[in-house]
Amino acid sequence: MDDLLDLAGRQGYVTTSDAANLGVNRMALSRLVASGVLLHTVRSVYLLADDRTPEQRHAAVVRATLKEDPWSVASHHSALVLHGINVFGAPFDQVQVADPRRSSRSHQSLHRHVLREGDPVVEVEGLKALGLPLALCQTATRFGMVAGLVAMDHALHLERCTPDDLQAVIESGRLRRGIGAARRAVSLADGRAESPGESRLRAIIAGGPFPYDLQVNVGGPGSGYRADLMVDGLVVLEFDGAVKYDGVEGKTALIAEKRREDWIREKGYGFMRTMTPELDYPVTINRTLHQKVVEARARRAA
Predict the structure, then answer these.
(1) Which residues pair with 225 in a beta bridge?
(2) Per-residue pLDDT tens for 208-260?
(3) Nearest to 283 by CA among 261, 291, 189
(4) Among candidates 197, 193, 254, which has minimal Cα distance to 226?
(5) CA pseudo-torsion sign 116, 122, 123, 127
(6) Which strand ranges, in their side-by-side order, compose the sheet holding 225-231?
(7) DSSP letters of 255-269?
(8) What is the pLDDT of residues 58-99, one digit of tens each?
(9) pLDDT surpassing 80 at residue 41
(10) d(Cα 197, Cα 274) in Å, to the nearest integer?
């Protein structure tokens, strides 16, 4: 049993085949699951019950799935986790693969799509995955514009692809259902976004009446202060995940942020801060932002 757990620690997962090779049967695996040592995920794949993130666990399951079936190619968000791209809004309990041998078929834990001739396949850490631009657009078609935008922003930020690469997929004819969501995500994608929260916030305000820009320098001490989003040239809209304010260093950062906000307000800009839980209420965000813009316009006109 120690050999099995050691293998799980080294490769990130074990399969029923791995267990059989080490003389561990399914009943013993079930006991390890019942005791909380292992997690049973996709079919024959087991993970250690540790503190990995959902993305990291999904990546381990994808690796195991591809190892067990060399015909399969990771697709959609399952390809993105191999590529190291942020994933939001996609189900981590279902692996997405493309397969040249069969028609599309979905099960609770595994969805097999058709791998069509000409679909770009690359190797990531010795495993096969669809090319990043196609996987990004697939994610938007299947899981929505916001899911696509979060991933596309991150890929562009890392300079792993270009807007032209994404547009080429849109025009390639490889996307079918959901292409409208992918097209919208591509039109909004911007590598200047620095976090999934910023991407989600931009998705909320993008359909509104006010123009906006990203990472605008509003001046200030040293090299100046940057705004996550500048709306209508008058309101600084910030996303704040709050994690950076934890601990002693976080308190110092909080003081510096307060000084920054005070300076921005003194220069006549409106200021609005949005945190992660508020992103689930887009109507409220847009209503508050509209009020901030109206107030800022009135101050400038006075």
Answers:
(1) 219
(2) 999 999 999 988 887 888 899 999 999 999 998 765 556 656 667 777 778 88
(3) 291
(4) 193
(5) negative
(6) 212-219, 225-231, 235-240, 270-275
(7) HHHHHHHHHHHHTT-
(8) 999 999 999 888 889 999 999 999 999 999 999 999 999 999
(9) yes
(10) 9
For the chain, how big is the Rg over CA atoms in Å? 23
- Give residue for tokens 């791998």: 115
Residues pairing with 275 in the sheet: 240
Query: CA-to-CA distance for 172 and 200, rounded, in angstroms?
Result: 27
Question: Which position has the token pair 């510096």?
Answer: 256
Helix (H) / strand (E) containing 299: helix 282-301
**Stated pTM of the model:** 0.89
| Three-state DSSP state, 111 | strand
Task: Check pLDDT > 90 for residue 113.
Answer: yes
Structure token digits, residue 87:
């994933």
Structure tokens at 179: 């292409």
What tokens were used for 299?
């101050």
